[in-house]
Specification:
TIM Barrel; 3 domains; 11 strands; 54% helix
C-alpha cells in the first residue's frame, strides 16, 4: 500500500505517467519485409503453402526418373542386408503402433530418470506387465532383438499372469524369488544396452576415438553434447563449460581439417539460458548472446564449424535474431563456420531459408545450413490444439513435409555462394532426389549429407567413399551419459518409428519398393484441394467439436500477432471508461501495477441513491401499463442499446 500512496502523490505532476502498455510496446520487434513474410506463413493453412512449394519441388521428368532409379538401388541394397541396422530390427519387431512398442518408448523416456525404486517398479508393472512379448519370440533375425525379447517376456511374466510351462516359467520362478530389485536392474541394463547403440561416447574424447573408423571411410562428424534445456543458471553455466571443452577437444582432433572436412559441434540455444523464450527477449539478447558469441569466437580460433540446432517452433524467430546478430558481429567477419538448422516440416521453412540466404549475402559469408525434416511433430500438433491457436506451425501430412524438403533443397543448391547445404535425411528417395538435383559434377565443398549415429549408416555406406561417385556424409553423434541420452533417444525413435517413416516402412517386407519411392509431389498434387490437411488431425478450433469451439489462444511467439496485440492494447487505453454515469462525484480507478495510470472512473452510490433508484423503478413500472405498445417498443429498444454500450465498456475494462 505504501508504494501506491507514493505513486499516487506523483500524480500531482512531478512525473507524468507513462502511456499504458508502453513497456509492452517497447518490447515489440519491427520486422522488415522478408521477416514479415516468414511471420505470415507461421500458421497459414496448408492450402496456401503447398502451391508455391509444389512449383519449387517439381523436377524435370528425366531427373525424377533418375532419382527413383537411384532410390530403388539404395533400398534394394538395404533390404539385402536386413540385419545391418539395429533400428530397423527394433522397428520391425516393436512398431510404435503396438502396445509393446509404446511400452518400450515409455521406459526409455522415463525409467532412468526416476529417482526412487518404488516408482520405477510401478512404471515397470504398468508398461511391461500387459505386453504380448511372447508373440515376438524368435521372429527377428537380430540376436540383440531376440535377447531383448526374452528379457521383456520374463519381466512381463513376473508382473502379469505366470505361465507354468517351459523355460519362461522356470526363469519366471527364478526371478520371482529374487524380487523387484532384480527386475529393475534387468530393465535398467536393457535400456542402457539400447542407449549405447545411439550414443557415440560418454565423453567427447571417447566419441572422437569412436568416430575414427568411419572417418577413415569418408564420413564426417558433428557432435551433440546431450542434455535438455537449462532449467537454472547453474545448468546454463555447466552446458557452456561442456561446449567449450568439446570445442577444444574437437579442434585438437581436427588437426587443421577445417570446417568442411573436419568434425563440428551442434549447439542447443536453450541449453545456454534457462529463459530462452520470446517473453524474455531482452534477457536472451543481453545474457545468452554473449555466451553464443564466446563459443563462436572460440570455434573460429580453432577453425571448428558450429551449428545452431533447431528446437520447438516458438523459438525459431528468436533463433533468427541471434543468428543475425552473430553474422553481423565484427568478430565473425570473413568466417564461414557459422551454421544453422531449419526444419522442413515447418510451414515457414522455405521463407526462412530465403531470408538466411539474403543474410549470408549481406554479411559476405557462406552459412552452413543443415536441412532436417523435424523431430517435434507430435508436440507441435498437441501444443497448438491445447493453446487454441489459429493453426499448426507444421504440416499435417508426411508427403507435404517431403515436398517442402525438396523445395528447400533446391533453393539451397541454387545459392552455393551463400550457403553450404547439409542434407539430413534417412529417406532413400529424398537422398536420391538431392543427388539428382545437385548434378553429377560434384565438387569439394558443394554439399554434404547427414545422418544420425546408430541409425543412418546402413543407407549411407552405399554412397560414402573416397572417390568416383561418392558423396560425403556427416554423422550427427550424441555425446553424454545414458541418463542424458533418453529424451534424445525417444525423439529419434518416435520420429523414425512412426508408421509413415521411411526407417519403419523399409523394415516391413509388406511395403513394396514402388511404395517407398512414390513421388511426394505427385501425391500432394493429387489432393483436392491441393494442400488439404490430414482429415484425422483435428484443427485447434475444432478440438471439442461438435459440442463447442475450442477457446481461442494468442500466439505470443509470432511477432505479427504481438504487434496486433500491442495495437489493440493501445486502443483499449484511449477511452476514459466510466461506470455509474447516472450518479455524481465519480472517483478514479487506478491500474494496480502502476498507480499513475488512471483506467477510468466509477461513481459509488449512497444508500439514499439506492432508495431513489428503486423509487424511480417503481414509478416506471406503474406507468408502463399505460403506455401504447409502440412507445413500449421504443423504450425497450433504447434501453437495449444503452445496455449493450455499457456492456462493451465493461468488457473492455475487464480485458485491460
Amino acid at each position: 500500500m505504501a508504494s501506491i500512496t507514493e505513486n499516487s502523490a506523483v500524480e500531482g505532476g512531478a512525473s507524468p505517467p507513462p502511456a499504458p502498455f508502453s513497456a509492452f510496446a517497447a518490447e515489440l520487434v519491427g520486422h522488415d519485409a522478408r521477416r514479415a513474410a516468414i511471420d505470415a506463413v507461421y500458421r497459414a493453412p496448408e492450402t496456401e503453402c503447398l502451391p508455391e512449394l509444389l512449383r519449387a519441388a517439381e523436377l524435370p521428368a528425366p531427373m525424377a526418373t533418375q532419382a527413383r532409379a537411384t532410390a530403388r538401388s539404395l533400398i534394394e541394397g538395404l533390404r539385402a542386408r536386413p540385419t545391418a541396422g539395429l533400428v530397423q530390427g527394433l522397428m520391425r519387431e516393436y512398431a510404435l503402433s503396438s502396445q509393446e512398442g509404446v511400452a518400450l518408448m515409455c521406459l526409455a523416456e522415463a525409467l532412468l530418470r526416476i529417482p526412487d525404486a518404488a516408482t520405477r517398479d510401478a512404471l515397470i508393472a504398468d508398461k511391461i506387465g500387459g505386453g504380448e512379448w511372447r508373440a515376438h519370440l524368435g521372429r527377428s533375425a537380430s540376436p540383440f532383438v531376440n535377447a531383448a525379447t526374452w528379457g521383456l517376456l520374463i519381466t512381463g511374466q513376473l508382473i502379469g499372469a505366470v505361465d507354468e510351462s517351459g523355460l519362461a516359467a522356470a526363469l519366471t520362478r527364478l526371478l520371482a524369488r529374487s524380487g523387484a530389485p532384480i527386475i529393475r536392474a534387468s530393465v535398467d541394463t536393457a535400456m542402457r544396452v539400447l542407449g549405447e547403440q545411439f550414443v557415440c561416447g560418454q565423453t567427447i574424447e571417447a566419441a572422437l576415438g569412436n568416430a575414427r573408423p568411419l572417418e577413415e571411410r569418408g564420413y564426417r562428424y558433428s557432435f551433440d553434447m546431450l542434455g535438455e534445456a537449462a532449467a537454472t543458471a547453474e545448468d546454463a553455466e555447466r552446458y557452456l563449460a561442456s561446449y567449450e571443452a568439446a570445442l577444444r577437444a574437437i579442434g585438437a582432433a581436427s588437426n587443421g581439417r577445417g570446417i568442411y572436412e573436419g568434425p563440428g559441434l551442434s549447439i542447443k540455444l536453450s541449453a545456454l539460458h534457462p529463459r530462452y523464450a520470446r517473453g524474455q527477449r531482452k534477457r536472451v539478447m543481453d545474457e545468452l548472446y554473449p555466451r553464443l558469441r564466446r563459443l563462436a569466437v572460440l570455434a573460429r580460433e580453432l577453425d571448428v564449424g558450429i551449428n545452431i540446432d533447431a528446437e520447438e517452433s516458438e523459438r525459431l524467430d528468436l533463433s533468427l535474431d541471434l543468428l543475425e546478430t552473430l553474422c553481423r558481429d565484427p568478430a565473425m567477419a570473413g568466417w564461414n563456420g557459422v551454421g544453422f538448422v531449419v526444419q522442413a516440416y515447418q510451414k515457414r521453412a522455405y521463407a526462412t531459408l530465403g531470408w538466411i540466404i539474403e543474410l549470408a549475402r549481406a554479411t559476405k559469408r557462406r552459412i552452413m545450413l543443415r536441412l532436417v525434416k523435424g523431430a517435434y511433430w507430435d508436440s507441435e500438433i498437441k501444443r497448438a490444439q491445447v493453446e487454441g491457436l489459429e493453426g499448426f506451425a507444421v504440416f499435417t501430412r508426411k508427403f507435404h513435409t517431403d515436398v517442402s524438403y525438396i523445395a528447400c533443397a533446391r533453393l539451397l543448391l541454387d545459392a552455393p555462394e551463400a550457403v553450404f547445404p547439409q542434407f539430413a535425411t534417412h529417406n532413400a528417395l529424398t537422398l536420391a532426389t538431392v543427388h539428382a538435383m545437385a548434378g553429377k559434377n560434384f565438387y569439394a565443398g558443394q554439399y554434404e549429407f547427414q545422418c544420425l549415429h546408430g541409425m543412418g549408416e546402413p543407407l549411407y555406406n552405399q554412397i560414402v567413399g573416397r572417390g568416383g561417385d561418392a558423396r560425403p556424409c556427416r554423422v550427427y553423434a550424441p555425446v553424454g551419459s545414458h541418463e542424458t541420452l533418453l529424451a534424445y533417444l525417444v525423439r529419434r525413435l518416435l520420429e523414425n518409428g512412426a508408421n509413415t517413416s521411411f526407417v519403419n516402412r523399409i523394415a516391413d517386407a509388406a511395403v513394396s519398393v514402388d511404395e517407398l519411392i512414390a513421388d511426394p509431389v505427385e501425391a500432394a498434387s493429387a489432393l483436392a484441394p491441393i494442400g488439404a490437411p490430414h482429415p484425422k488431425i483435428v484443427a485447434p478450433r475444432d478440438l471439442f467439436a461438435p459440442e463447442r469451439d475450442n477457446s481461442a489462444g494468442l500466439d505470443l511467439s509470432n511477432e505479427a500477432s504481438l504487434a496486433a496485440l500491442g495495437q489493440a492494447l493501445a486502443a483499449s487505453a484511449r477511452p476514459d471508461w466510466h461506470a455509474g454515469a447516472a450518479f455524481p462525484a465519480p472517483r478514479p480507478i487506478l491500474n494496480p501495477a502502476d498507480a499513475r495510470d488512471v483506467v477510468g472512473h466509477v461513481a459509488d452510490v449512497a444508500p439514499a441513491g439506492v432508495e431513489e433508484a428503486f423509487a424511480r423503478a417503481e414509478r416506471g413500472r406503474l406507468g408502463w401499463s399505460a403506455l401504447e405498445p409502440g412507445a413500449r417498443a421504443r423504450i425497450l429498444t433504447e434501453a437495449a442499446a444503452r445496455f449493450e454500450a455499457e456492456a462493451q465498456k465493461l468488457a473492455g475494462l475487464i480485458c485491460r
